[in-house]
Amino acid sequence: MSDQTYLTLDKLTLAYGRTPAVKDLDLAIRKGELLALLGPSGCGKTTTMRAIAGLMSVGGGRITLDGRDITKLAANKREIGLVFQSYALFPHLTVFDNVAFGLKLQGMRGDELRRTVEGGLKTVGLLEFAGRKTPDLSGGQQQRVALARSLVMQPKVLMLDEPLSNLDARLRLEMRTELQRVQKESGVTMIFVTHDQIEALALADRIVVMRGGAIEQIGTPEEIYNHPVSSFVADFVGFENIFPLKDGRLVAGNTAIDVSGTVPDAGGLAWRPRAVPLGSGPLTGLVRGVSFAGNSREYVIEAPFGMVKAEVDAAAPVHSIGSEVRFDLPVAGAAVLHRFG
Length: 341
Ligand SMILES: Nc1ncnc2c1ncn2[C@@H]1O[C@H](COP(=O)(O)OP(=O)(O)OP(=O)(O)O)[C@@H](O)[C@H]1O
Known about the structure:
With 341 residues, this protein is of the alpha+beta class. The protein has two domains: 5-228, Rossmann fold, CATH 3.40.50.300; 233-337, CATH 2.40.50.140. Helices cover 25% and strands 35% of the residues. The protein has eight helices and 19 strands. It has helices at 45-53, 95-105, 110-123, 139-151, 169-186, 197-203, 221-226, 231-236, and strands spanning 5-16, 19-30, 34-38, 60-65, 68-69, 80-83, 157-161, 189-194, 206-211, 214-219, 241-246, 249-252, 255-256, 268-271, 278-293, 296-303, 306-313, 324-327, 335-337. The strands form four sheets. It has a six-stranded mixed sheet with strand order 6-7-8-3-9-10, sandwiched between helices. Strands 13-12-11-14-19 form a five-stranded antiparallel sheet. A hairpin with a 2-residue loop joins strand 4 (60-65) and strand 5. The chain starts with a strand and ends with a strand. The structure holds adenosine-5'-triphosphate. The site of adenosine-5'-triphosphate has 12 residues, from strand 2 and helix 1. This is Spermidine/putrescine transport system ATP-binding protein. Keywords: ATP-binding, Nucleotide-binding, Transport. Residues 7-237 form the ABC transporter domain. It comes from Rhizobium halophytocola.
């Protein structure tokens, strides 16, 4: 991956009629990067992707690809590939002919066509299926045909909209690894849209978390997972205990929470259940729920200021439902949030 910016969105503003969808979005994507657009439904991921692909007109701002302003360029001139949730394969054509389709339109024929299509099928591990009709393939295989069909066109950027959401859990895992491998091998710059944080964390080089048509945070999976900047991102990546700071104190409602450690000057603090020790500490609560999760046990504790979730080793002493338990929210184990709300 080069450090140079390859695709740039500059103050991009998008709307459907009078309904704004994306506002003043700035984003710089590097060549060869695998970038995830992550966020809840309606945050503007698909709209952003459609604008990059040239499928919707831009209300304001600029899109630059490989040094060229493509803001107003027709979709078919942008050299951007798209793989949709529904693979949109031709059912009456073989795998080979599906992958060959776009190349033929460009006038490629004969040996060159065969070599290119076979190369694409090899990349996605489907060479032996070249003669099959696409309805006779599994969902994951169809997805790979769609991927090969886009890859052989050698797009400057390949965009995938919820690429794994139609697959069952096992296939999704398999395709995740596959997508990552194909991206690294082909070196193509890839952007994928997802609302699944696990998928984004597992796959992407960098994640863009979107909220309400704007970027909430950009970072590596480690940065997003360990250092969410806001309560919104923390909540999205599985911090279940999130509290605001007011006047240098951690609070829930109007109640101050006694944490151990010095509270920083920030918008709030967040703990994953794993970071909440049980059995000792300055806080007390009642156990309202316990569930066994293999290596660990998950507790729901009712404290005077609200519910707290804790996860401890399954081998640790069990606290039964209804019992009082001591616990801690140690500042040292918290993610410090710049913004709350
Ligand atoms: N065709 C449309 N007409 C009017 N408004 C639209 C249209 N498509 C999307 N919107 C609105 O634009 C905003 C952004 O939608 P968008 O589809 O980009 O979100 P998303 O993050 O991709 O969501 P999802 O994960 O549900 O696909 C939303 O408020 C949505 O209601």
